[in-house]
Structure formats: structure tokens, C-alpha cells
Amino acid sequence: MNLGRIFLGDMRLYYQPDKILILTGECIYHMIELIGMFCFPDTKGYTEELMLISNFMQLSIIICTYNSAGRLEKTLDSILSQNGEDFEVVIIDGASTDGTVEIIKDYESKFAGKLRWISEKDSGIYEAMNKGVKMAQGEYLNVIGAGDWLEEGALGKVFRAMADNLEADAIYAKTRIWDKDIKESKFFQTLPEILPTQPMQHPALYYKKELHNRFGLYDERYKIVADYLFCLKAFYFGKERVKLIDDVTVNFVMDGVSSICDKECEAENKRVRRELGIKSKIKIPNPVRFIKKRMGI
Fold first, then answer.
1. How close are the terminal C-alpha atoms of the chain, in Å?
2. Phi-psi region of 124 (alpha: psi -120 to 50; beta: other; left: phi over 0)
3. Does 163 share its domain with 206?
4. Among 36, 65, 182, 290, which residue has the fewest nearby CB atoms (within 10 Å)?
5. What are the C-alpha distances in Å from 283 to residues 168, 273, 286, 290?
6. Is 198 found in the same domain as 133?
7. What pLDDT shows up at residue 250?
8. What is the mean pLDDT of residues 17-28?
9. pLDDT of residue 3 exceeding 50
10. Average of pLDDT values for 262-270?
11. What is the pLDDT of residues 178-189, one digit of tens each?
């Protein structure tokens, strides 16, 4: 269903060219009455669509975990503190053995039905992310890691940007980056136009799920740069519309990155260059090294 949205305080007006439908947070039972207030001559046939809209989910936050017991709670607490109800949390756990699953179970009741999860072995981060994409019910997707945390009021700003930019395929905010010693970096944001030379920070990207129908899932042949490859396909070569917002929405910790990862990044970047036909004179960045340089570490 292709719906537009207008925010009216804590009420949202969903509309199509020939119809106006109202959804007021939890007040689903009043929708028929509200439609009558707009004096429609005939409300027959609206009930089915109203039920569909009552299940509308605006954003799915996907978290991939593996033995993340020491980091996950901070992430989930930051999400719980957000205002609004049009989001869900989807956790894909890789069969953790350190108590991560017990933490997830403990938070289920706190999210009041808005947290769904699985715990099973996978081949790596991108298989886990693809499982999350398939499970997600939201119109928009956001992928963050265990240990990342949202800024206070972050989702409210993102939802406002979505409502004000219905034509955009993605909302892209700023990221505050920390190294493992909790040394703060400058805010980080990359213009889609220069993606071949600078990576995007995926935790600050809120993109429409339907983009995966056009550009495929995350390529599981890659271990490190499949999210960067997806962004190149969608937002650089695909020219999908990205709205930049001047707000920090997420904190990202550079933790446990090794020189082995650097070498793997270089090898995978060469594969990306060949796959996309990027001329060799355009250097695709090593995301790890690029961020380290920006942080002075």
C-alpha cells in the first residue's frame, strides 16, 4: 500500500489520492468515527484497509549479535528511551554462549511486543543482516551493532525527517564515533555523491526496505564491505534519493579492529571495484583506516 504521511502532533494522517485514513497511535477503535468526522459520503470498504494500517510499522531496527552480553544492554536501553511507537527491534543472534540470549529474553517484556529475535548459527554478519531484513516489518530499516547507542530523541528527529521528505529513499544522519578508549571523534557524515572515495556510516542510515527489491540483499560473498557495496549500488550508481539531516542520531564504537581486517578490506575493495567497473584511478577507501585517520588514531 503506497501511503503518504502527515504528522499532527501525536496523530498521523495517512492518505492516498482518493482516500483519507486516520491513525492516532493506540486509538485504533476511534478510526471509523474519525473518518465520519471528515464527512465521507460512504465509508464502506474502509474497514479492511484500516486494519492493514493499524499494523503499519514505520521503522525496523536490526541488531546482529554474537556473544555481545557486555554491550547489548546499553544499545537496548538507548532504544527504550526513545519516544514514539512506530518502530520495532529485530535481533539476529548467532547462537551466543555468553548470556546474550538471556539478556534478549529479559528485554522482551520491556519492549511490549516490539522486540522479535532468533538465535541460530550463521556464516557471518551479512547472513545475519539479511535474516534481519527478511524478518523486518518496517517500511524503513536501520542496522546498528551491539554496543552502539542512540542519542536521546534520535528517532523523533528521524521520523520527522521521513514525514517531511516522502520522496526520499533514505534518511542519513550524523554519527558520533568513539575508539575503544572512549576517545570521541568529530561528527561523521558522508555525501552520497562522493561514496566512491568515502564510506557511509551504516548505523546512521535509515533506508526503505524496498531498496532490497531493486538492489538485492547484502552480498554474503563479502565479510567486511557488503554494506558499503549495497550503498554504492543504491545511492551512487542507482541515484536513489538520500535526505541528509544535521543531527547526530547514533554513537558508534570502534572496538577490536585489527590489521588483519585492514588487509581483508583492501582485498574486498578490489573485488568491489572490479564488480562495479570502477576505474582503478578512483580509490575505494578502506573504511577502517579512513575512520582511524579521521579520529587521529
1. 48
2. left
3. yes
4. 182
5. 28, 9, 9, 12
6. yes
7. 95
8. 39
9. no
10. 79
11. 876 555 555 455
- The residue segments making up the domain with residue 21 are 4-54
- On whether both 73 and 203 belong to a single domain, the answer is yes
Please check whether residues 46 and 99 belong to one and the same domain: no
pTM exceeding the 0.70 threshold for the entire prediction: yes
Q: Which three cell numbers stand for residue 212?
A: 532490497
List b or e across 158-194, with b for residues whose CB sees 16 or more CB atoms inside 10 angstroms: bbebbeeeeebbbbbbbbbbbbeeeeebeebbbebee
Using the 3D structure, point to which of 54, 79, 95 is the last residue of a domain. 54
H or E, element range at 188: strand 184-188
108 and 30, same structural domain?
A: no
Same domain, residue pair 158 and 189 = yes
The pLDDT assigned to 45 comes to: 47
Kindly report, residue by residue over 227-253, the tens digit of the pLDDT. Answer: 989 998 999 889 899 999 999 999 988
Considering the domain architecture, whether residues 50 and 118 belong to the same structural domain is answered as no
- 157 and 82, same structural domain? yes
- CA-to-CA separations, 243 to 151, 165, 169, 235, in angstroms, rounded: 19, 7, 8, 11
